[in-house]
Amino acid sequence: MGKSVLLIIGGGIAAYKSLELIRLLKTRGIGVRAIMTKAAAEFVTPLSVASLSGEKVHSALFNLTDEVEMGHIELSRSADLVVVVPATADLMAKMAQGLANDLASTTALATDKPVLIAPAMNVRMWQHAATQRNLATLETDGIHVVGPNEGDMACGEFGPGRMAEPVEILAAIEVLLASAPKPLAGRKILITAGPTREPIDPVRYISNHSSGKQGYALAEAAVRMGADVTLVSGPVSLPKPFGVKIIDVQTADEMLAACEKSLPADGAIFAAAVADWKVAHSAANKIKKQKSGEVPTLTFVENPDILKTIATGKMRPQIVVGFAAETEKVIEHAKAKLEKKSCDLIIANDVSEGVFGTNRNTVHLVGKSGVEDWPQLSKAEVANRIMAHLAGLLK
Ligand code: CTP
């Protein structure tokens, strides 16, 4: 039987995003039954929710017809996961206190299923000690939390409190619903992703085209397989994967320091496109144009090789996987990197064909015992297969 979620829609401006979430869930074949608070009906209509979910919408606790058809306790157990979207400050407070004075809060209290909340509220409300206390209580109670993000708010302020986007909530739901085996349970995995930025002066930098997509997909796959994942990420514009500890960095030096701090780990995958060089002395102030038309000369020094440093270091993870971005002699260069950087495995890809920023990748697995050529796959599928391979190597 297909999976299903019970959506509790709270009364906040972000409630409109619940409609998109329902649509996304339905495209994934996930069933949706919804409860709306009284306030939620001020933001989205029960008719929209019913039309998109294809199910009757529940809202009143004391409704004789509803209770005969499906009691509130049964409703709370009817799905594999309960998702509160948006989780308003009021709903979070009620859940943290165990209050049950309407159908939404009663259901959240009565359920024996995992619960995911997507908080959304004004930045001051989010930062208020009371909300933070409630959040801590909910987390201690084992409630899963996705978001909130930082950004512009409907009220005109800026900061944390914006609800996670429907695609991010969907990704979190998929992790929680995954009944797949968890071959990486109990394993600590370190992943690097994205480009690095090496400053020239306060406004300019050297970087590359890496989008971070492959590294982020690896982190998501590892979490789905039960791993405890730390993702050291260069600057990218990707949503933060659910359940992953992210350390944001800019430069190669910062990336190395963050990786070293994240050890020990059972496995490490270095998917970041680290700048090989940095400017020897980045200027403290913006470099100005010269009147005479002279151009500045930049002196470069080599960046640390993060992969090699970790792979040859005292705290080397049991399995170390590197990437090789090549534009020619792909396998030959990858084999050389396997040796030179003391890796157990190199994922080689030909980046001359426009891999950067796309969703697909053609890779070759270069190990000590030989080469495996994989067909062109989505980056998500490449990630699944690499993680399954890593799980096999860790056994
Ligand atoms: N890498 C790293 N630190 C660096 C450079 C690379 O950790 N300073 C890692 C990358 O994350 C990748 C692997 O090393 O896993 C190979 O990266 P790649 O850019 O293909 O190789 P380079 O060592 O930079 O060699 P070249 O640029 O000469 O191909």
Summarize the structure.
It is built from 14 helices and 22 strands.
How would you explain this protein's 3D organization?
The chain has 395 residues and is an alpha/beta fold. The protein folds into two domains: 4-177, Flavin prenyltransferase-like (Rossmann fold, 3-Layer(aba) Sandwich), CATH 3.40.50.1950; 188-394, Rossmann fold. The chain has 14 helices and 22 strands. It has helices spanning 16-27, 46-53, 64-69, 72-77, 89-97, 103-110, 123-127, 129-140, 166-177, 213-224, 252-261, 306-311, 330-340, 379-394; strands at 4-9, 31-36, 57-58, 81-87, 115-119, 144-145, 149-152, 158-162, 188-193, 198-201, 204-206, 228-233, 245-248, 267-270, 277-279, 300-302, 319-326, 345-350, 360-361, 363-367, 370-373, 377-378. The strands form six sheets. Strands 13-12-9-14-17-18-20-21 form an eight-stranded mixed β-sheet, sandwiched between helices. A six-stranded parallel β-sheet has the order 3-2-1-4-5-6, sandwiched between helices. A two-stranded antiparallel ribbon has the order 7-8. A hairpin with a 2-residue loop joins strand 20 (363-367) and strand 21 (370-373). Helix 1 (16-27) crosses helix 9 and helix 5 packs across helix 8 (129-140). The model has no long low-confidence stretch (mean pLDDT 92). The structure holds cytidine-5'-triphosphate. Cytidine-5'-triphosphate (CTP) is lined by residues 192, 252, 270, 272, 274, 276, 303, 305-307, 322-325, 337.
List strands and helices in order, with pairings.
Elements: E1 4-9, H1 16-27, E2 31-36, H2 46-53, E3 57-58, H3 64-69, H4 72-77, E4 81-87, H5 89-97, H6 103-110, E5 115-119, H7 123-127, H8 129-140, E6 144-145, E7 149-152, E8 158-162, H9 166-177, E9 188-193, E10 198-201, E11 204-206, H10 213-224, E12 228-233, E13 245-248, H11 252-261, E14 267-270, E15 277-279, E16 300-302, H12 306-311, E17 319-326, H13 330-340, E18 345-350, E19 360-361, E20 363-367, E21 370-373, E22 377-378, H14 379-394
Bound molecules: cytidine-5'-triphosphate (CTP).
Cytidine-5'-triphosphate binds at residues 192, 252, 270, 272, 274, 276, 303, 305-307, 322-325, 337.
